[in-house]
Amino acid sequence: MTARDWILPGERPGTVRYHVRTVADETGQTPEAILGPTKITEVVAARWEVIRRARADGHSFSAIGRALNRDHTTIINAVRRMEERHA
């Protein structure tokens, strides 16, 4: 299954699922890897990019967490770490 197959036909740009697919396409990762438990640096960077884009679109921590199969506190921590690294 490719990243393009993973998105549903007619999926709206701006959904978390849409961001997972587009980031997967851009980074060469699979949606399954981004959603999975791996801590490989390249996959984590792709996951953080999904979180960054979803937050920029106004999604809540809880909504992003549900879409990425993670607790909302994990998303909060990721955002804090991204802010620290880019400060």
Which short descriptors sum up this protein?
67% helix, Chromosomal Replication Initiator Protein Dnaa, Chain: A, mainly alpha, 87 residues, 0% strand
The named CATH superfamily:
DnaA protein, C-terminal DNA-binding domain
- Our Rg estimate from Cα atoms comes to 12 Å
Uncertain segments are none
- H-E string: HHHHHH
Helix content: 55-70%
Mean of pLDDT: 89
The CATH architecture assignment turns out to be: Orthogonal Bundle
User: Under CATH, the topology is which?
Assistant: Chromosomal Replication Initiator Protein Dnaa, Chain: A
Biggest sheet details:
none
* Beta-strand share of residues: under 5%
Distance between the termini: 38 Å
Could you characterize the architecture of this molecule?
With 87 residues, the chain is mostly helical. The protein has a single domain (3-85), classed as DnaA protein, C-terminal DNA-binding domain (Chromosomal Replication Initiator Protein Dnaa, Chain: A, Orthogonal Bundle). 67% of the residues lie in helices and 0% in strands. It contains six helices and no strands. It has helices spanning 3-6, 16-27, 31-35, 41-56, 61-67, 72-85. Helix 2 packs across helix 4 (41-56). The radius of gyration is 12 Å and the shape is globular. The N and C termini lie far apart (38 Å). The mean pLDDT is 89.
Write the layout of secondary structure elements.
Elements: H1 3-6, H2 16-27, H3 31-35, H4 41-56, H5 61-67, H6 72-85
